[in-house]
């Protein structure tokens, strides 16, 4: 049943204008990240390991992600659920044997695959951009791939949160408002100590996964991302998502 339900959700997405949202999500991060190419000293650093061109590009990408992802993930989640509110889809699915919570889990599997693909595409395209402009310094594969993997986890947790919110509250403006507020939380977390960012889940975790950071003197230093914290976030988010959706299964539609 799950396989057929997931396939049905992909069919729905063709009519929900998901592609433009995903395109903006990927292209927006790529465009903002590539602004770094015009930054002072970047061209001179492309062949100089001391200039850390890949790390500069990674810092630019991590900033663009926290500015764009909270809103666009909220839009993506809203698109998945609003069709059920507008067309009485919850009741129709119930009569087909799919309880509301089960349908939410199906939507997470289907749209979550899109979120993962978009996140990996963002990272891959920013890397490709750096290679195309001529960065010849050795590529920090471990640092880049580690950030991408952690970003996938944070994006999925945030998407799950918005999916539940959109399913629970019919007025989708609330989810959009939370998305805008999420950008605010993500931005202010950049100025907080790491231990405080743990108290702003999941938005503060964009700061915790950041692999590089600029110091006050303008120097760029590598950081140790909080792998354990992000994995704990993913586990806790998964458990909470299952618990809440099981409550949805018992809800009247």
From TrEMBL:
- The answer to keyword Disulfide bond applying to this record is no
Q: What is this protein called?
A: ABC transporter permease
Keyword field contains Membrane: yes
Q: Which PROSITE patterns match?
A: PROKAR_LIPOPROTEIN
Organism placement in taxonomy: Bacteria, Bacillati, Actinomycetota, Actinomycetes, Streptosporangiales
**What UniProt keywords are attached to this protein's entry?**
Membrane, Transmembrane, Transmembrane helix
Q: Where are the transmembrane segments?
A: 21-42, 54-76, 108-138, 144-166, 173-196, 224-244
């Amino acid at each position: 049943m799950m396989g057929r339900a997931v396939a049905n959700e992909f069919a729905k997405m063709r009519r929900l204008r998901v592609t433009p949202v995903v395109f903006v999500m990927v292209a927006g991060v790529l465009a903002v990240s590539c602004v770094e190419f015009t930054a002072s000293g970047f061209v001179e650093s492309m062949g100089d390991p001391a200039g850390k061109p890949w790390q500069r590009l990674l810092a630019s990408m991590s900033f663009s992600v926290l500015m764009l992802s909270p809103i666009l993930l909220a839009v993506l989640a809203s698109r998945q659920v609003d069709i059920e509110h507008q067309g009485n889809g919850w009741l129709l699915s119930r009569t087909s044997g799919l309880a509301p919570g089960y349908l939410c889990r199906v939507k997470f599997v289907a749209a979550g695959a899109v979120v993962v693909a978009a996140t990996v595409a963002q990272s891959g395209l920013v890397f490709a951009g750096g290679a195309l402009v001529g960065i010849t310094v050795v590529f920090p594969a471990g640092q880049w791939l580690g950030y991408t993997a952690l970003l996938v986890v944070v994006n999925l947790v945030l998407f799950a949160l918005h999916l539940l919110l959109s399913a629970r509250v019919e007025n989708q403006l609330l989810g959009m408002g939370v998305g805008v507020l999420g950008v605010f939380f993500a931005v202010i977390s950049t100025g907080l100590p790491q231990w405080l960012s743990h108290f702003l889940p999941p938005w503060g975790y964009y700061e915790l996964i950041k692999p590089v950071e600029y110091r006050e003197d303008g120097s760029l230093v590598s950081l140790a991302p909080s792998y354990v914290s992000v994995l704990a976030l993913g586990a806790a988010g998964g458990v909470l998502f299952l618990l809440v959706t099981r409550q949805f299964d018992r809800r009247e539609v």
